[in-house]
Design a protein that fits this description.
The chain is of the alpha/beta class. It is built from 16 helices and 13 strands. The strands form three sheets. It has a six-stranded mixed beta sheet with strand order 6-7-5-8-9-10, sandwiched between helices. Strands 2-1-3-4 form a four-stranded parallel beta sheet, with helices on both faces. The protein is elongated, with a radius of gyration of 28 Å.
Length: about 425
């Protein structure tokens, strides 16, 4: 019995036919091509489905009714029957009326790319914040599609006596009732997310008060962000080879060097054609980027399309207002790199999060970028200057205090604390400016 249950769990949820349209009339971001169709196949696997076949159509312009044209619809209908498919998933976004027509003509459920991504997010979200964000995105996606879903209920339930039999009612269509209900749900979810944001803001202020810098890990989905966080901090985050495996922000403390601690945040992966509802709904997670002191842009350099993927992430960083934040480009999976010369230069590090290659160089680069003049020092305070010890407890990280002929303190001090106690720092030499060398 237990074996049967396991087989049922492992059985794919659906067999899907993939469809896409390439047309000069579509925006380049909305077009389907071989690469985006391959990515769509990976998304289907992530959602627990199985790809049975795919069909890519080239047309001068989208068909207003069926999007891909009657001939292609007939071809896909044959594929559905032959492959015993349970759904058809489009790489493009469909209008509500096109989705309704295609569902009727193909005889199976029809989804577009945005609906598939929303389904994956709904499966993956774990925390209350993540679930709130997904639910908000789902309602925002659903709202403009209500008309297509409720055509059978659009008869006006008025009281004039001139309507069809069965249309008498409270004077409001089912469609309008559902719209009001969804608007109320959206308002409630936004209010709940504002509360989440307020709590995160309080936590952020506490970190800023403690002067602990924040590094946010960003990157295309499946670039290895969670594996990197595990390698850096020993965090036990599931790191699987599937898209959108991390949805909820994970935050860990990382000791970069003996004078620098950093809070590292792992964020949701970016992707081409990310539904705009998700960009809006995930602002509460992604706003960490705006307040971060450093971005670690993780790039899967083993992927032949890494340059295009990096450009997608750069665009979303600009959209979120974080383009002014210092950024290190972290070329991950370098052990699988297919080219001859790895990218190199200022602000670029090659690593393999899986094997640990390049991690020391990455830590050194983080230390250089976030270095704010913090130093580990030994201070010998005379007893009549004991009040400075209180200042060190407030402004520095005091590691040990011993009382002898003087008060001997080992501490990690920022420039402000150093300025207050430098006459008593053991072996202190005033740093020279570069032009004095």
């Amino acid at each position: 019995m237990r074996e049967q249950t396991t087989q049922e769990i492992q059985k794919p949820r659906d067999r899907a036919i993939l469809a896409g349209l390439s047309s000069p009339r579509l925006d380049s971001r909305d077009n389907a091509d071989e690469e985006t169709m391959a990515e769509l196949a990976a998304l289907v696997e992530t959602a627990g489905g199985e790809v049975a076949a795919s069909a890519l159509q080239n047309r001068s312009s989208p068909d207003p009714r069926t999007f891909i044209g009657e001939g292609k619809v007939a071809e896909i209908k044959d594929l559905v029957r032959h492959e015993e498919a349970t759904m058809v998933i489009f790489d493009n976004d469909l209008s509500p009326s096109q989705m309704r027509v295609l569902t009727e003509e193909l005889g199976v459920q029809v989804l577009d790319r945005s609906a598939l991504i929303l389904d994956i997010f709904a499966q993956r979200a774990r925390t209350r914040e993540g679930r709130l964000q997904v639910e908000l995105a789902q309602y925002q996606y659903l709202l403009p599609r209500l008309t297509g879903m409720w055509t059978h209920l659009e008869r006006q339930a008025g009281t004039s006596g001139k309507g069809p039999i069965g249309s008498k009612g409270p004077g409001e269509t089912q469609l309008e009732t559902d719209r009001r209900h969804i608007h109320r749900k959206i308002d409630k979810l936004k209010a709940d997310l504002e509360e989440v944001r307020r709590i995160r803001g309080t936590q952020r202020q506490r970190r800023m008060k403690n002067e602990i810098p924040v590094a946010a890990i960003v990157g295309y989905t499946n670039a290895g962000k969670s594996t990197l966080l595990n390698a850096l901090t020993g965090a036990d985050i599931p790191a699987n080879n599937r898209l959108f495996d991390t949805l909820d922000t994970t935050t860990r403390l990382l000791t970069v060097s003996d004078t620098l601690d950093v809070v590292v945040s792992d964020t949701v992966g970016f992707i081409r054609k990310l539904p705009h509802q998700l960009v809006d709904a995930f602002k509460a997670t992604l706003e960490e980027l705006e307040y971060a002191d450093l971005l670690l842009h993780v790039i899967d350099i083993s992927n032949p399309l890494w340059q295009e993927q990096a450009a997608v992430v750069d665009g979303l960083i600009r959209e979120l207002g974080a383009e002014g934040t210092p950024c290190l480009r972290v070329y991950n999976k370098s052990d699988l790199f297919w080219g001859e010369v790895r990218p190199h230069g200022e602000g670029e590090v090659n690593i393999s999060a899986r094997t640990g290659e390049g991690i020391p160089e990455l830590l050194a680069a983080i230390d250089r970028t976030l270095d704010k003049g913090t130093r580990r020092v030994t201070v010998h305070l005379p007893y009549d200057k004991g009040g400075l010890l209180d200042l060190l407890y407030r402004e520095a990280k005091v590691e040990s205090v011993e009382y002898g002929s003087t008060i001997d303190i080992a501490a990690v001090c920022n420039p402000k604390a150093i300025g207050a106690v430098k006459p008593y720092i053991e072996g202190w030499v005033e740093p020279r400016e570069p032009w004095e060398a």
